[in-house]
Protein backbone atom coordinates (compact mmCIF):
# COMPACT_ATOMS: atom_id res chain seq x y z
CA UNK A 1 0.00 0.00 0.00
CA UNK A 2 1.42 3.38 -0.97
CA UNK A 3 1.69 5.93 1.79
CA UNK A 4 1.19 8.97 -0.45
CA UNK A 5 -2.36 10.33 -0.69
CA UNK A 6 -4.12 10.85 -4.02
CA UNK A 7 -3.70 14.57 -3.43
CA UNK A 8 0.06 14.26 -2.96
CA UNK A 9 0.25 12.21 -6.16
CA UNK A 10 -1.90 14.83 -7.95
CA UNK A 11 -4.10 11.91 -8.95
CA UNK A 12 -7.12 12.75 -11.12
CA UNK A 13 -9.44 11.41 -8.41
CA UNK A 14 -8.05 13.89 -5.89
CA UNK A 15 -10.18 16.48 -7.68
CA UNK A 16 -13.81 16.54 -6.53
CA UNK A 17 -15.16 17.55 -9.94
CA UNK A 18 -13.36 14.64 -11.63
CA UNK A 19 -14.88 12.20 -9.14
CA UNK A 20 -18.37 13.54 -9.76
CA UNK A 21 -17.81 13.44 -13.52
CA UNK A 22 -16.71 9.83 -13.25
CA UNK A 23 -19.70 8.82 -11.12
CA UNK A 24 -22.03 10.33 -13.71
CA UNK A 25 -20.39 8.70 -16.71
CA UNK A 26 -22.21 5.97 -18.60
CA UNK A 27 -21.12 2.36 -18.19
CA UNK A 28 -18.72 0.75 -20.65
CA UNK A 29 -21.69 -0.51 -22.70
CA UNK A 30 -23.01 3.05 -23.02
CA UNK A 31 -25.96 2.64 -20.62
CA UNK A 32 -26.43 5.12 -17.79
CA UNK A 33 -26.72 4.07 -14.17
CA UNK A 34 -30.11 5.02 -12.73
CA UNK A 35 -29.71 8.45 -11.13
CA UNK A 36 -29.94 8.62 -7.35
CA UNK A 37 -32.28 11.55 -7.60
CA UNK A 38 -34.76 9.56 -9.70
CA UNK A 39 -34.69 6.75 -7.12
CA UNK A 40 -35.44 9.26 -4.37
CA UNK A 41 -38.22 10.61 -6.51
CA UNK A 42 -39.77 7.16 -6.93
CA UNK A 43 -39.87 6.81 -3.16
CA UNK A 44 -41.28 10.29 -2.55
CA UNK A 45 -38.13 11.66 -0.91
CA UNK A 46 -37.06 14.15 -3.59
CA UNK A 47 -36.04 16.81 -2.67
CA UNK A 48 -34.38 15.34 0.39
CA UNK A 49 -34.94 17.56 3.44
CA UNK A 50 -33.58 17.47 6.98
CA UNK A 51 -35.74 16.15 9.80
CA UNK A 52 -34.15 17.84 12.81
CA UNK A 53 -30.46 18.64 13.13
CA UNK A 54 -29.15 16.88 16.20
CA UNK A 55 -25.49 16.30 15.44
CA UNK A 56 -22.54 18.44 14.44
CA UNK A 57 -19.96 16.29 12.70
CA UNK A 58 -16.79 18.31 12.70
CA UNK A 59 -13.84 17.33 10.57
CA UNK A 60 -10.90 18.87 12.42
CA UNK A 61 -8.34 18.07 9.74
CA UNK A 62 -7.31 15.61 7.06
CA UNK A 63 -3.95 14.68 8.57
CA UNK A 64 -3.67 11.04 9.63
CA UNK A 65 -0.92 8.64 10.66
CA UNK A 66 -2.44 5.99 8.35
CA UNK A 67 -3.21 5.89 4.62
CA UNK A 68 -6.00 3.31 4.44
CA UNK A 69 -7.02 1.87 1.09
CA UNK A 70 -10.70 2.74 1.46
CA UNK A 71 -10.40 6.25 2.92
CA UNK A 72 -13.04 8.61 1.53
CA UNK A 73 -11.16 11.60 2.98
CA UNK A 74 -7.89 10.73 1.21
CA UNK A 75 -6.35 11.38 4.61
CA UNK A 76 -2.69 10.74 5.33
CA UNK A 77 0.51 12.05 6.87
CA UNK A 78 1.01 14.48 3.99
CA UNK A 79 -2.34 16.29 4.38
CA UNK A 80 -1.95 19.72 5.94
CA UNK A 81 -5.56 20.90 6.22
CA UNK A 82 -6.20 21.53 9.90
CA UNK A 83 -8.96 23.34 11.82
CA UNK A 84 -7.85 26.37 13.81
CA UNK A 85 -8.92 27.16 17.38
CA UNK A 86 -10.84 30.18 16.01
CA UNK A 87 -13.00 27.96 13.81
CA UNK A 88 -13.52 25.57 16.73
CA UNK A 89 -14.67 28.52 18.81
CA UNK A 90 -17.11 29.48 16.06
CA UNK A 91 -18.52 25.96 16.19
CA UNK A 92 -18.90 26.16 19.97
CA UNK A 93 -20.60 29.55 19.77
CA UNK A 94 -22.98 28.27 17.11
CA UNK A 95 -24.28 25.25 19.00
CA UNK A 96 -23.97 26.40 22.61
CA UNK A 97 -27.58 27.51 22.98
CA UNK A 98 -29.21 25.05 20.60
CA UNK A 99 -30.76 21.59 20.94
CA UNK A 100 -27.86 20.11 19.01
CA UNK A 101 -26.81 17.48 21.52
CA UNK A 102 -23.91 15.70 19.90
CA UNK A 103 -20.57 16.71 18.46
CA UNK A 104 -18.94 14.01 16.40
CA UNK A 105 -15.24 14.66 15.84
CA UNK A 106 -13.64 13.14 12.80
CA UNK A 107 -10.64 13.59 10.49
CA UNK A 108 -8.02 12.34 9.45
CA UNK A 109 -6.98 11.40 12.93
CA UNK A 110 -8.79 14.09 14.93
CA UNK A 111 -6.37 13.61 17.83
CA UNK A 112 -3.55 15.01 15.65
CA UNK A 113 -5.09 18.47 15.65
CA UNK A 114 -3.00 20.46 18.18
CA UNK A 115 -6.18 21.97 19.65
CA UNK A 116 -8.06 18.68 19.86
CA UNK A 117 -7.92 18.35 23.65
CA UNK A 118 -8.83 21.99 24.18
CA UNK A 119 -11.82 21.53 21.89
CA UNK A 120 -13.03 18.41 23.72
CA UNK A 121 -12.69 20.19 27.08
CA UNK A 122 -14.66 23.22 25.87
CA UNK A 123 -17.39 21.00 24.40
CA UNK A 124 -17.72 19.12 27.69
CA UNK A 125 -18.12 22.43 29.51
CA UNK A 126 -21.23 23.20 27.45
CA UNK A 127 -22.58 19.69 28.12
CA UNK A 128 -22.44 18.34 24.61
CA UNK A 129 -22.02 14.64 24.05
CA UNK A 130 -18.67 14.24 22.31
CA UNK A 131 -17.87 11.38 19.95
CA UNK A 132 -14.38 10.84 18.63
CA UNK A 133 -13.75 8.73 15.54
CA UNK A 134 -10.41 7.19 16.37
CA UNK A 135 -8.22 5.00 14.21
CA UNK A 136 -6.87 3.42 17.45
CA UNK A 137 -3.27 3.23 16.22
CA UNK A 138 -2.82 6.95 16.92
CA UNK A 139 -2.82 6.12 20.64
CA UNK A 140 0.46 4.25 20.12
CA UNK A 141 1.88 6.44 17.35
CA UNK A 142 3.75 8.78 19.70
CA UNK A 143 4.24 8.90 23.50
CA UNK A 144 2.27 12.16 23.60
CA UNK A 145 -0.85 10.24 22.59
CA UNK A 146 -0.43 7.35 25.03
CA UNK A 147 -2.67 8.97 27.65
CA UNK A 148 -5.57 9.51 25.23
CA UNK A 149 -7.67 6.68 26.75
CA UNK A 150 -7.40 8.41 30.13
CA UNK A 151 -8.25 11.78 28.58
CA UNK A 152 -11.26 10.30 26.77
CA UNK A 153 -12.49 8.67 29.97
CA UNK A 154 -12.12 11.89 31.96
CA UNK A 155 -14.44 13.71 29.56
CA UNK A 156 -16.71 10.72 28.97
CA UNK A 157 -15.99 10.90 25.25
CA UNK A 158 -17.73 8.19 23.24
CA UNK A 159 -15.05 6.37 21.26
CA UNK A 160 -15.98 5.04 17.83
CA UNK A 161 -13.06 3.23 16.34
CA UNK A 162 -12.15 1.55 13.10
CA UNK A 163 -11.78 -2.21 13.26
CA UNK A 164 -12.77 -3.60 9.87
CA UNK A 165 -12.26 -7.22 10.85
CA UNK A 166 -11.29 -9.52 13.68
CA UNK A 167 -8.71 -11.20 11.45
CA UNK A 168 -5.28 -9.62 10.96
CA UNK A 169 -5.33 -10.30 7.22
CA UNK A 170 -8.54 -8.41 6.46
CA UNK A 171 -7.71 -5.47 8.72
CA UNK A 172 -4.14 -5.03 7.50
CA UNK A 173 -5.09 -5.39 3.82
CA UNK A 174 -7.27 -2.32 4.18
CA UNK A 175 -5.41 -0.25 6.76
CA UNK A 176 -1.75 -1.22 6.38
CA UNK A 177 0.68 -3.75 7.83
CA UNK A 178 0.78 -3.89 11.60
CA UNK A 179 -2.44 -1.93 12.11
CA UNK A 180 -4.35 -4.92 13.50
CA UNK A 181 -1.85 -5.64 16.29
CA UNK A 182 -1.63 -1.96 17.28
CA UNK A 183 -5.42 -1.67 17.26
CA UNK A 184 -5.69 -4.67 19.59
CA UNK A 185 -3.22 -3.07 22.01
CA UNK A 186 -5.12 0.23 21.89
CA UNK A 187 -8.44 -1.54 22.51
CA UNK A 188 -6.94 -3.23 25.57
CA UNK A 189 -5.79 0.18 26.85
CA UNK A 190 -9.32 1.54 26.39
CA UNK A 191 -10.77 -1.48 28.19
CA UNK A 192 -8.38 -0.84 31.08
CA UNK A 193 -9.86 2.65 31.44
CA UNK A 194 -13.30 1.05 31.67
CA UNK A 195 -14.32 1.56 28.04
CA UNK A 196 -16.80 -1.00 26.75
CA UNK A 197 -17.40 -2.36 30.26
CA UNK A 198 -20.82 -2.57 31.82
CA UNK A 199 -21.67 0.06 34.39
CA UNK A 200 -18.90 2.53 33.49
CA UNK A 201 -20.96 4.56 31.02
CA UNK A 202 -17.86 4.72 28.83
CA UNK A 203 -19.00 3.74 25.36
CA UNK A 204 -16.69 1.98 22.94
CA UNK A 205 -18.07 1.17 19.50
CA UNK A 206 -16.30 -0.57 16.64
CA UNK A 207 -16.75 0.22 12.97
CA UNK A 208 -16.67 -2.57 10.43
CA UNK A 209 -16.43 -1.85 6.74
CA UNK A 210 -15.72 -4.46 4.10
CA UNK A 211 -12.11 -4.96 3.00
CA UNK A 212 -13.06 -5.23 -0.64
CA UNK A 213 -15.72 -4.67 -3.28
CA UNK A 214 -18.73 -6.06 -1.47
CA UNK A 215 -21.40 -4.88 0.92
CA UNK A 216 -21.24 -5.48 4.66
CA UNK A 217 -22.90 -8.49 6.29
CA UNK A 218 -25.75 -7.98 8.73
CA UNK A 219 -24.68 -5.74 11.59
CA UNK A 220 -26.33 -7.96 14.15
CA UNK A 221 -24.58 -11.15 13.08
CA UNK A 222 -21.22 -9.40 12.70
CA UNK A 223 -21.53 -7.86 16.15
CA UNK A 224 -22.11 -11.26 17.72
CA UNK A 225 -19.15 -12.71 15.90
CA UNK A 226 -16.80 -9.78 16.63
CA UNK A 227 -17.73 -9.90 20.32
CA UNK A 228 -17.02 -13.59 20.56
CA UNK A 229 -13.78 -13.58 18.57
CA UNK A 230 -12.30 -10.48 20.20
CA UNK A 231 -13.18 -11.66 23.69
CA UNK A 232 -12.10 -15.28 23.21
CA UNK A 233 -8.80 -14.38 21.56
CA UNK A 234 -7.81 -11.12 23.22
CA UNK A 235 -10.17 -10.61 26.18
CA UNK A 236 -11.46 -7.41 24.52
CA UNK A 237 -14.97 -6.07 25.17
CA UNK A 238 -16.91 -3.34 23.37
CA UNK A 239 -20.45 -1.99 23.19
CA UNK A 240 -21.79 -1.94 19.63
CA UNK A 241 -20.53 -2.71 16.17
CA UNK A 242 -21.46 -0.37 13.33
CA UNK A 243 -21.44 -1.95 9.86
CA UNK A 244 -20.68 0.71 7.27
CA UNK A 245 -20.84 0.43 3.49
CA UNK A 246 -17.88 1.86 1.58
CA UNK A 247 -18.94 4.78 -0.61
CA UNK A 248 -17.54 4.94 -4.13
CA UNK A 249 -15.46 8.09 -3.76
CA UNK A 250 -11.80 9.04 -3.34
CA UNK A 251 -9.39 6.19 -2.55
CA UNK A 252 -12.12 3.55 -2.46
CA UNK A 253 -13.28 4.69 -5.89
CA UNK A 254 -9.68 4.46 -7.08
CA UNK A 255 -9.52 0.91 -5.70
CA UNK A 256 -12.81 -0.05 -7.39
CA UNK A 257 -11.62 1.23 -10.76
CA UNK A 258 -8.15 -0.32 -10.55
CA UNK A 259 -9.48 -3.70 -9.46
CA UNK A 260 -12.11 -3.76 -12.22
CA UNK A 261 -14.95 -3.83 -9.69
CA UNK A 262 -16.44 -0.36 -10.19
CA UNK A 263 -19.43 -1.14 -12.43
CA UNK A 264 -20.51 -4.24 -10.55
CA UNK A 265 -20.19 -2.55 -7.17
CA UNK A 266 -22.14 0.50 -8.30
CA UNK A 267 -24.86 -1.70 -9.81
CA UNK A 268 -25.02 -3.73 -6.62
CA UNK A 269 -25.56 -0.54 -4.57
CA UNK A 270 -28.28 0.60 -6.97
CA UNK A 271 -30.02 -2.79 -7.00
CA UNK A 272 -29.93 -2.82 -3.20
CA UNK A 273 -31.59 0.62 -2.84
CA UNK A 274 -33.80 0.46 0.23
CA UNK A 275 -36.47 3.15 0.70
CA UNK A 276 -36.43 2.69 4.50
CA UNK A 277 -32.70 3.28 4.57
CA UNK A 278 -33.17 6.32 2.32
CA UNK A 279 -35.69 7.80 4.75
CA UNK A 280 -33.18 7.42 7.61
CA UNK A 281 -30.00 8.74 6.01
CA UNK A 282 -27.81 10.63 8.46
CA UNK A 283 -27.66 13.84 6.42
CA UNK A 284 -31.23 14.42 7.62
CA UNK A 285 -30.09 14.99 11.21
CA UNK A 286 -26.42 15.91 10.88
CA UNK A 287 -24.43 18.85 9.62
CA UNK A 288 -20.85 18.35 8.55
CA UNK A 289 -18.28 21.09 9.12
CA UNK A 290 -14.94 21.13 7.34
CA UNK A 291 -11.57 22.17 8.77
CA UNK A 292 -12.01 25.61 7.20
CA UNK A 293 -15.49 26.18 8.62
CA UNK A 294 -17.66 25.37 5.63
CA UNK A 295 -20.89 23.44 6.12
CA UNK A 296 -21.89 20.35 4.16
CA UNK A 297 -24.70 17.82 4.19
CA UNK A 298 -22.27 15.07 5.21
CA UNK A 299 -18.58 14.20 5.35
CA UNK A 300 -18.80 12.62 1.87
CA UNK A 301 -20.31 15.76 0.33
CA UNK A 302 -17.55 17.66 2.09
CA UNK A 303 -14.91 15.58 0.30
CA UNK A 304 -16.75 16.12 -2.99
CA UNK A 305 -16.77 19.88 -2.23
CA UNK A 306 -20.56 20.01 -2.60
CA UNK A 307 -21.14 23.23 -0.70
CA UNK A 308 -24.68 24.13 0.40
CA UNK A 309 -26.79 25.68 -2.32
CA UNK A 310 -27.59 28.87 -0.41
CA UNK A 311 -24.42 30.95 -0.34
CA UNK A 312 -25.54 32.71 2.84
CA UNK A 313 -25.52 29.41 4.72
CA UNK A 314 -22.21 28.05 3.54
CA UNK A 315 -19.96 29.03 6.45
CA UNK A 316 -20.16 28.44 10.19
CA UNK A 317 -19.79 32.18 10.85
CA UNK A 318 -23.27 32.63 9.33
CA UNK A 319 -24.78 29.71 11.28
CA UNK A 320 -28.58 29.76 11.07
CA UNK A 321 -30.13 26.54 12.39
CA UNK A 322 -33.65 27.30 11.22
CA UNK A 323 -32.56 28.05 7.68
CA UNK A 324 -30.35 24.95 7.64
CA UNK A 325 -33.28 22.79 8.67
CA UNK A 326 -35.28 24.18 5.75
CA UNK A 327 -32.57 23.58 3.15
CA UNK A 328 -32.48 20.96 0.41
CA UNK A 329 -29.84 18.26 0.86
CA UNK A 330 -27.57 17.85 -2.15
CA UNK A 331 -27.37 14.35 -3.57
CA UNK A 332 -25.39 12.57 -6.27
CA UNK A 333 -24.53 9.02 -7.33
CA UNK A 334 -22.30 8.31 -4.30
CA UNK A 335 -25.40 8.58 -2.08
CA UNK A 336 -26.38 5.04 -3.13
CA UNK A 337 -23.77 3.89 -0.60
CA UNK A 338 -25.93 5.08 2.32
CA UNK A 339 -29.22 3.67 1.01
CA UNK A 340 -28.14 0.16 0.00
CA UNK A 341 -29.28 -2.91 1.91
CA UNK A 342 -29.67 -2.22 5.61
CA UNK A 343 -28.50 1.35 5.05
CA UNK A 344 -25.27 2.91 6.23
CA UNK A 345 -24.39 5.86 8.39
CA UNK A 346 -21.61 6.84 10.78
CA UNK A 347 -23.72 5.00 13.36
CA UNK A 348 -23.99 1.89 11.20
CA UNK A 349 -27.11 0.33 9.70
CA UNK A 350 -30.19 2.55 9.52
CA UNK A 351 -33.01 0.14 8.83
CA UNK B 1 -11.49 -9.44 -25.03
CA UNK B 2 -13.82 -11.17 -27.46
CA UNK B 3 -17.40 -11.48 -26.28
CA UNK B 4 -17.90 -14.64 -28.30
CA UNK B 5 -17.42 -17.11 -25.48
CA UNK B 6 -19.95 -19.38 -23.89
CA UNK B 7 -19.64 -17.63 -20.54
CA UNK B 8 -19.80 -13.83 -20.17
CA UNK B 9 -19.48 -12.43 -16.67
CA UNK B 10 -21.96 -9.68 -17.51
CA UNK B 11 -24.63 -12.29 -18.25
CA UNK B 12 -24.84 -13.01 -14.53
CA UNK B 13 -26.56 -9.66 -14.04
CA UNK B 14 -29.07 -10.69 -16.71
CA UNK B 15 -30.17 -13.81 -14.83
CA UNK B 16 -33.51 -12.16 -14.13
CA UNK B 17 -34.12 -11.92 -17.88
CA UNK B 18 -34.92 -15.64 -18.08
CA UNK B 19 -38.44 -14.56 -17.14
CA UNK B 20 -38.73 -12.83 -20.52
CA UNK B 21 -39.61 -16.01 -22.45
CA UNK B 22 -41.70 -17.50 -19.68
CA UNK B 23 -42.79 -14.91 -17.12
CA UNK B 24 -44.92 -17.19 -15.00
CA UNK B 25 -42.33 -19.92 -14.51
CA UNK B 26 -39.62 -17.28 -14.08
CA UNK B 27 -41.57 -15.64 -11.28
CA UNK B 28 -42.23 -18.95 -9.59
CA UNK B 29 -38.55 -19.83 -9.74
CA UNK B 30 -37.31 -16.50 -8.37
CA UNK B 31 -39.91 -16.41 -5.61
CA UNK B 32 -38.80 -19.87 -4.58
CA UNK B 33 -35.12 -18.95 -4.92
CA UNK B 34 -35.61 -15.91 -2.68
CA UNK B 35 -37.37 -17.99 -0.03
CA UNK B 36 -34.67 -20.67 -0.09
CA UNK B 37 -31.92 -18.21 0.78
CA UNK B 38 -33.77 -16.44 3.60
CA UNK B 39 -32.52 -17.03 7.13
CA UNK B 40 -34.26 -20.10 8.50
CA UNK B 41 -32.94 -22.95 10.61
CA UNK B 42 -29.73 -22.30 8.70
CA UNK B 43 -28.24 -18.81 8.79
CA UNK B 44 -27.86 -16.79 5.59
CA UNK B 45 -24.11 -17.31 5.83
CA UNK B 46 -24.41 -21.09 6.13
CA UNK B 47 -26.69 -21.10 3.10
CA UNK B 48 -24.25 -18.97 1.10
CA UNK B 49 -21.39 -21.33 1.97
CA UNK B 50 -23.43 -24.39 0.99
CA UNK B 51 -24.30 -22.63 -2.27
CA UNK B 52 -20.62 -21.90 -2.81
CA UNK B 53 -19.71 -25.57 -2.37
CA UNK B 54 -22.51 -26.70 -4.67
CA UNK B 55 -21.44 -24.10 -7.25
CA UNK B 56 -18.05 -25.79 -7.40
CA UNK B 57 -19.66 -29.18 -7.77
CA UNK B 58 -21.88 -28.11 -10.65
CA UNK B 59 -18.91 -26.05 -11.93
CA UNK B 60 -21.06 -23.06 -12.79
CA UNK B 61 -18.89 -19.95 -13.20
CA UNK B 62 -21.88 -17.64 -12.66
CA UNK B 63 -22.73 -19.40 -9.41
CA UNK B 64 -19.12 -19.30 -8.23
CA UNK B 65 -18.97 -15.52 -8.81
CA UNK B 66 -22.36 -15.00 -7.22
CA UNK B 67 -21.68 -17.05 -4.09
CA UNK B 68 -18.13 -15.82 -3.63
CA UNK B 69 -19.59 -12.30 -3.38
CA UNK B 70 -22.57 -13.68 -1.48
CA UNK B 71 -20.40 -15.45 1.10
CA UNK B 72 -18.27 -12.33 1.63
CA UNK B 73 -21.41 -10.24 2.01
CA UNK B 74 -22.66 -12.62 4.66
CA UNK B 75 -19.42 -12.18 6.58
CA UNK B 76 -17.63 -15.42 5.66
CA UNK B 77 -13.85 -15.53 5.86
CA UNK B 78 -11.46 -16.81 3.20
CA UNK B 79 -10.81 -19.85 5.39
CA UNK B 80 -14.50 -20.73 5.66
CA UNK B 81 -14.95 -20.36 1.91
CA UNK B 82 -12.01 -22.61 1.07
CA UNK B 83 -13.22 -25.20 3.59
CA UNK B 84 -16.57 -25.18 1.77
CA UNK B 85 -14.79 -25.83 -1.55
CA UNK B 86 -12.90 -28.70 0.05
CA UNK B 87 -16.23 -30.21 1.10
CA UNK B 88 -17.22 -30.19 -2.58
CA UNK B 89 -13.86 -31.71 -3.52
CA UNK B 90 -14.05 -34.36 -0.80
CA UNK B 91 -17.55 -35.42 -1.83
CA UNK B 92 -16.54 -35.53 -5.49
CA UNK B 93 -13.36 -37.48 -4.72
CA UNK B 94 -15.21 -39.71 -2.31
CA UNK B 95 -17.91 -40.36 -4.87
CA UNK B 96 -15.28 -41.78 -7.22
CA UNK B 97 -13.47 -43.70 -4.56
CA UNK B 98 -16.54 -45.28 -2.98
CA UNK B 99 -17.15 -46.92 -6.35
CA UNK B 100 -13.82 -48.59 -5.80
CA UNK B 101 -15.75 -51.02 -3.66
CA UNK B 102 -17.78 -51.98 -6.70
CA UNK B 103 -14.56 -52.41 -8.68
CA UNK B 104 -13.16 -54.61 -5.93
CA UNK B 105 -16.34 -56.66 -5.75
CA UNK B 106 -16.30 -57.22 -9.50
CA UNK B 107 -12.58 -58.00 -9.48
CA UNK B 108 -13.05 -60.61 -6.77
CA UNK B 109 -15.90 -62.08 -8.78
CA UNK B 110 -13.73 -62.40 -11.86
CA UNK B 111 -10.46 -63.56 -10.37
CA UNK B 112 -9.78 -67.04 -9.19
UniProtKB/TrEMBL annotation, chain B:
Q: Which NCBIfam families does the record cross-reference, listed alphabetically? A: ahpD_dom, perox_w_seleSAM
PANTHER family with a match to the protein in the record: ALKYL HYDROPEROXIDE REDUCTASE AHPD (PTHR33930), BLR3452 PROTEIN (PTHR33930:SF2)
Q: Which GO terms describe its molecular function?
A: peroxiredoxin activity
Would you tell me the protein name for this molecule?
Answer: Arsenosugar biosynthesis-associated peroxidase-like protein
Query: What would be one Pfam family of this protein?
Result: CMD
From the broadest rank down, the organism's phylogenetic lineage runs: Bacteria, Pseudomonadati, Bacteroidota, Cytophagia, Cytophagales
Domain Carboxymuconolactone decarboxylase-like, first and last residues per copy:
23-103
